[in-house]
Description:
The longest helix is centred in the last third of the chain and has 22 residues, at about 290-314. The N and C termini lie far apart (about 50 Å). With about 325 residues, this protein is an alpha/beta fold. About 30% of the residues lie in helices and about 20% in strands. The protein has 2 domains: about 1-40, no CATH class; about 55-190 and about 235-314, Alpha/Beta hydrolase fold, catalytic domain (Rossmann fold). It has an 8-stranded mixed beta sheet with strand order 3-4-6-5-7-8-9-10, with helices on both faces. It has a two-stranded antiparallel ribbon with strand order 1-2.
Amino acid sequence: MPGTHIVVGEVLRQDADTAEVTREILRWTGTLEAGATRGSWTGQAFSSPEELHLDFEEVQLAPGGLPAWVFHPAKPSTDVWVIHIHGLRSSRQSMLRSVESATRLGLTSVVPSYHGDAENHAQGQVSHYGRLEAEDVDKALAYAVQRGAKAVYLFGWSMGATISLLLTETSAYRQVIAGLVLVSPGPNTEAVIFENARTAGLPPAIAKVVPRILSTPGVSRLASLTKPVDFDALDWSRRVGRLRTPALVLHSRGDTEVPFELSAQFAKSNPETVTLVEFPPVPHQCEWNSAPERFGEEIAAWIKDRESRRSERS
Length: 314
């Protein structure tokens, strides 16, 4: 039901005859009408920023711009910030999971929205696979720098990882990007689109046509794109040494939307900058849900190491 959010826990009972499963309910927000039988499964663990019980505010990153949440830890680091970037068909709520990890480190967090995401799709914009969306998120970088950030970590989930990777190359503030934390990333957008088309039931020969449509001038307008997709610009998995910014990748072989093999190839092509951490098999973007403590510990250890190295250089 719209506006209803239920967090479930372990399986309590399972009926082999009816395939019915009974799970523990951990948290319930909103109301459920009598007779309701359908819902959507997501990894979204929090329905609103208030559920984190943290000091936060909603701001506009630029005059007339889209909204963002800014979370202020009780004992903030003076100059290290985090920007949490959600993926395709998602929203800021899904990023509340990684806000917890950043807050424990004393880092100020910005959670921006962008045109075409789940909050703003009514404006008629479609996804441009990170190219246009990065322009919106770049305003979050500007916001952080203008308020004293000397180092910024980008936490990118799914297509948010693509946006993060693009910003390391295109942002006017890229010199302050200290590192990336990428969750279920798709470092080769063309391969991700092909795999999703194939998973949807299209024969491989036809699935290969989908990226061609999106990248062909004129034809791409059939998909409501303002310009063709440059898939070479969205591939960090095959070009050796393309990524110059340190990155921690958290991914699972259970991901059926973005193959784990893309992350493995990404790490192989960028051995000097990419650290790949594999989680047990879980669905796309559910690494936190399967092991929230480990998720936070991996991030904390990596960022503390990066900050130690940054301090030694300064």
